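haha ok so turns out i had the wrong file open the whole time. this is the CORRECT one, sorry everyone. sequence first:
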Amino acid sequence: MIRSTRKVPFVAYHLFKKINNLKHTTKSDTIKTWSRASVILPSMVGFTIAVYNGKQHVPLFINDQLIGHRLGEFVPTKTFRSHKVKTSDRKAKRK
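then structure:
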């Protein structure tokens, strides 16, 4: 969901500053960030940004199809574990 049109997209200042610094160098380092609310801008295309999911930094390569979305949309925070019932519980439910 995009903010209203009269507001500019939110990008954390420290992230924007790191991207601008990498543009002027020839390095292709991974940028670590905790800012999941930052919007992906066209200036970020081609960089790898590691977004924190609460446990680890997950690398995310930015391409032109991701522009306008937020960084947190592509890095899930929860891991799904199946709804399997243990065999001992299944036997108890039959009786």
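The two ends are 50 Å apart (CA to CA).
again sry for the mixup
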